[in-house]
Structure formats: structure tokens, C-alpha cells
Amino acid sequence: MRFSLVIVESPAKCKKIESYLGPGYKCIASFGHLRELKGLDKIQRSDYTVFFDIASDVKKQKHIEFMRKEVLKAEEVILATDDDREGEAIAWHICQIFDLDPTSTKRIIFHEITENALQSAVLYPRTINMNIVHAQQARQILDIVVGFKVSPLLWKHITSQNSLSAGRCQTPALRLVYDNQKDIDASPGKKMYNTLAYFTNKCIPFELTKSLENETDAQYFLHQSIGFEHRFNRSDVKKILREPPEPLTTSKIQQLASNEMRISPKETMKLCQSLYEAGYITYMRTDSKKYSPEFIASIKEYVVKEYNDSAYLHPCIDRLTVGSKEKESITAKKSKKIIGPLPQEAHEAIRPTHISCKKLPEEMSAREKKLYTLIWENALESCMAAATFTTFIASATTHIPEVHYTCTQELIDFAGWKIVKGKFSKVNKEYSYLQQLKIGSILPYKKITCKFAFSGLKQHYTEAKLVQLLEEKGIGRPSTFSTLIDKIQERKYVIKQDIPGKKIECKDFSLEDGTILEETVEKEFGNEKNKLIIQPMGIMVLQFLLEHFDSLFNYDYTKYMEDELDKISNGNVSPWFKICETCWHDTDLICDALKTEKKREIRIDDHHVFMIAKYGPIIKCTIDGKTSFKHIKKDIDMEKLMRSEYTLEEIVEEKKEKEKEKEKKYYQPESIGEYQNHPLFVKKGKFGIYTEWGKNKRSLSKFGNRPIENITLEEVISEIEKNGVPVDGQKPESSIVRLVNDNISIRKGQYGDYIFYKSKKMKKPSFLKLDGCTLDYKACNIIFLKDWILEKYGVQ
């Protein structure tokens, strides 16, 4: 039977698409890109013709042959790859591989996997937009020029033992974290005292408008307050509006999920992909802040039905409709005017496909449910009226004429969009009480406190903040933000971690019943949770790149290249490869000048050098021709190190060095990490080095006479898993073919390969079949494999 063949990127969409389009359609997936650009030698520089190679993955090659057979059997081919630059390029590559005419082959676009969206897309197909394809190719060429030409210089001048890399957008992203660290180092904070007064029998807190600088000022202020008559004042009541949140773009959902769910941008996009493929939300890679007319109509109906009042709808809701000529959001207070032409708005903002679907079914994961709730609430709130409040400022005088206490009070007048979550109170007793007080009356205080604090302490960036800055500075596209943030952490340039605060013994003061009390307390300042911290390796790499490639990696140049890619996408640049030639030429000039530069090391003294080794920074010690290595402390100030302001004793990790001396006398090993929920030890025995964990032992003879303290956890685990992993002291009956994550691995059994699944909460593992898996599970993209396992068995 002849059929129309629909080609998408992800296999998870296929069954649903076939069910919506009917029996005359068959849907298959490309599993992402089918061809790759392997190097600079594949680019013809005269006109930037690119000679792509079929993906080297054997399973991918077999899949291409499967696709070829399906294409030949089909009556027509409909390209339904994602509506972004990568998707457009994949569609073009499919045409090239299977000899389809890109000027006539149907290309359909849909932003939600629903029956109406798919049938509408099939009714109104277009063809491949070569401007978008050229923009993708230009981006690919720019990335490979920078990566292939600059990264080898890092290997030459810093270390060849580590997978260091530079990237057109990756390096500016790292620079943001680096610049912030410099600001933090330059802003140690200022000591001060914050003052609160609790007035009336209701102990209503008022805050002093001025900070006090030291203990003397705090004590003097409280002393002057003992007999002072604080006079009450109150401003006029006024109305304020709180506008609803804006519709969700790619960057905004990453920030929202990071702040509300404490998950990374990468995890957010993975969850969004799952929700999109399941048909619950619209496409998640979008810059648009508009909704379809159909969705706006459904919102109007839902709000009136749910809240029984059309006043809850935003009076300018129609300005949120795709195709509206308004350049500004309905939240005029927050919005920024778009400079230049209106963006293409084929996409919508991220929203639920059906506003009536308030909750997901039970089989969805907890994180998917939580993220969906955030998306659902935001979509509804963004279309609703502003919340209105009445507010005033109450104040009280002090003995200093220009300084006073203030207390802001507000009362909700109309809930507007805030009714969605219902997190507001219609009653404010303090508001009513302070409204009744007579202006000029004396306010008796119950207690006044002066508490020690720090002002001006700068914070490290969260992932959400970094996403915001990448968007503001035009570094990359929102769809690439999660990859950039993940990459700088994967390279160990930056680590996401908690920062312990510094404990300070300080004095707080209070005034109560005419008596000044002093209390010595220990307070902690500067503690932070889940922040991005630049590492010594990241600092060395970035400083090298800024010293030699500042023009290539400064924020303005990066934004300029992104703007040029947008122009190519819109057909406003000819020839399209002009930006590629500019970047290639600029990079060559700098690389040529670096050919005679020596490898970068920081000398501590005549015998010791700071350097980057395979697993990070170390001190190389050379005495009498013998070389050894010393561990360094984690909190080294790289700027200070480069200025030669450290002595050796100040940077060497003394604890580890003392342990090494102790081991020479009597070896008492400590765990180097954890494996299979057991501490993992490296020991020296009668027959050489071996590792031990739980009831298991494994020889490490391959390391020869290498010092035990120089053997890493990663190396030991790799050696363990080469020939299979024993369990509870038994000999392995199976061997690991591929590790998927901490809970899942592909293993070789007596009757073939299978999936081994065991989470930390499970007492016994589950053994799952690989039947039906069309992937090359030994070598395919790990994301595809995880998605298949999740879809097949619901485990991850």
C-alpha cells in the first residue's frame, strides 16, 4: 500500500503522529542529524561549500539504509523536523541523502503534537527555507573554526593531559562567571548595623532608613532613643498594579525551573522535550511571547467559566495573539521594545496544548508534573488582569531629623492573576490598625534592635542568573543556553556547589524597657547554595584566551556574530558565508602569532611549579632530577598566584602531604571514593596494588609501581569495569557493555545483552529486555538510549 512518509527527529513522536494523521501516513524518525562536518579540510573556503560525511556511527548508517527503503516505498515524503535552524538543516540533509528535491519536497511545521495542529500542518506545507539552512551551516562553520584552531593551542600552552576546549559561545559564557568572581573578590562587603523598632502593643516592625556603621554608633543611637518620643506619620493611600508574568520563552522556562525546582537548564529542556512529545505542551525552543488565536479563545472561555467574571481577563489580551503587530508585551512595565524588525512569530510561547488539562496523569514523573504545573500556571496568569493593591507608608520620627523608621502596608483590592495560585490574604490587621492611628501621635516602642550585618556582599551566579545574562548579552541562542552551561561544568572549568559561609563573632544590641542589652553571637555570612564557582583550571584557560583572543571572545563580538546569523536566517546577508570568512581570518592572525609562545606554567620557587595536569591543578616538584607532585588547596586566589604572592606552604594541601608521609611509614589507606554503595580502597599487598570495596577485590597490576596516592577513582572504576563487575564477592557472570547512568547499564548475559536496572531504593535489581530497540545501544547517542528505556519501561 502506498503511503505518505512523515520524517521527524525523535522516535517518541511517531506513534502519536500516525494516530492523528490516519492510515494513509507512516511516520519514522531520523534520530537527529544524519551527516556531520568532520573538520576544516571539509570546507571549501572559496565559496564555503561543505563536504559532509555520513555519520560514522554504524547503527546510524544502518538506520539511513532503513530510511532509504521507506523513502523509496513512499508515495510522497513530508519533512516534519523541528522548527528551528537545526531542524531545517536536518530536513535539507535528508533531501541530499535520499535525492529529494528541496525546492519541492513538502516541509511541514507544527508546534504542538495535537490532531488539529498536525492536520493543519499537512494542509499547508511549505518547502525548505535555505536561508535558515545557511544560518545553521554558518553557525556550524564558526564553531568548528574556533574549536579546531583555538582548542589545540590550549593543549599546547596549558596542558595536553586534559580535554581543554574553547568555544565561540562557551568561552564568553565562562567569562561571565570569571568576571563575576573578580567582582566578588573586589567587594569584601562592609560591616554595618540594621535597626528595627517594634512599635505599639501589636509589636509592628518598622525599619530604620539608615544603616549604622559600627558598635559605637549603634549604642549611641539606642541610648538617644530611650526617652525619645517617636511621632507617627502616614502617607496618602494609593493604588498600585502588579502586572502578570510574561509568557514563557526558552530562557524564561530555564530560569523559572531553576528557581522553583532547583534543576539545571539541561534537565529542564529534557523534561520539556518529554512533555512536548507526549502532546502536553507546545514546542520548547522559542523566543516568542505570543499565543495562537485558538489558545487565546480557550483562555477567555476558561477564565470566565472558572472565575465567573470576565474582569479577570487582561483588557489587552488580544495583543498576545500571534500575528499581532504590537511590539510590546501587555506587561508594559516590564517589557522592552524590540530593536529592528519584528521577530518571526511562527512559534508560540511555551504553553499547555489544552488549558483544560490542569494536571498530568499519574504515570508521568513527579518532575514532569511539577514543571507542567509551572507552565500551566504561567500561561493562564500571563493572560489575566493585573492585581491591584491599596498601599501606604507608615513612619516614625527619630532623634536624627533626616532619619526615620518606615513600614509599608498593603491590602489586596482585586486579585487579578494572583487568584490562580491563591497565595494572598484579603485581611491585613496591621493595615487597618495603622490607618486608624492619629497622625502626630506618639508611638511607644516595645523593643528596638541593632543587629550586625554585612552590606555589599556580591553573590555567585546561579544557573538561572547565567541564563539571564547569556540572553541579555546575546551570547548564543536560548536553545543553546543549557548546552553552554553544561559544557563549562563538564570541562571542570566551573563547578556547581555550596559555599560555606564565614563565621564571625559579633555583638548585637537591643533596647527594651529603657535598658540597653548587649549580646555576643556567632553569625555566618556569605554561605550560598548551588552556585557556579570558577575553578583554577577555568581561570588559567580563560586568562590565556583573553590575553591572546580577547577580540574573538569579547561580549560585543559574540553578539555581533549572533546578529549576523539572524540576518542570514532572514535572508538579509549576501553572501551568507561572509561572517565565516571574517572569523576564520581573524582567528588565523592570532594563531600565527602564538606559534613561538612557550607552555604556560607558574613558578612558585626554584623547585616548584604550578601547572594543570590530567585531573586538574597540581604542584610539580623537581629536586635532584627527581619529580614528584603535591596537592594544592581548593581556595587558591589565581590572581594572587600569578603575581607570585604565595609561598609554597600557603598553597600546598598540608593534610594530604602529611598523609603521604604517614603512608611511607605505615600504609593505612583511606577511601578514594564510593563504588556500588561501598567505600573504594586502593591497597598495596604481597602481589602488588589492588582495589577493594565491600566483599570484592580486583588487581590493579597495570599501574605497576605507580604511587598509590596518584591513582584516581575514575581510573580504578574503569579498570574494574573492563571485565565485568562482581557483586557481593561473587565472580561476575555478566559484564557491562555500556553504562547508561548510576541506575542503568547494558550488560552481557548468557542469552544475550540485557538492561540491568537498580536504583538506590531497590533491594533487588530488575532485568529488562532489549527487544524492540532499533538503536545501536553500544554506541548511539546516550540521550536517545535513555529516552528509549524511559519510554519502554518508565525507568531512568
Automatic annotation (TrEMBL):
Q: Which is one Pfam family of this protein?
A: Toprim
EC category: isomerase
One GO MF annotation is: DNA topoisomerase type I (single strand cut, ATP-independent) activity
Report the catalytic activity: ATP-independent breakage of single-stranded DNA, followed by passage and rejoining
Occurrences of domain Topo IA-type catalytic (ranges): 129-590
Q: Which UniProt keywords apply?
A: Coiled coil, DNA-binding, Isomerase, Topoisomerase
Q: Which InterPro entries match?
A: Topo_IA, Topo_IA_2, Topo_IA_AS, Topo_IA_cen, Topo_IA_cen_sub1, Topo_IA_cen_sub2, Topo_IA_cen_sub3, Topo_IA_core_domain
Q: Which residues form the Toprim domain?
A: 3-113
**Family (UniProt):** Belongs to the type IA topoisomerase family.
What is the official name of this protein in its record?
A: DNA topoisomerase
Supply the source organism for this entry. Answer: viral metagenome
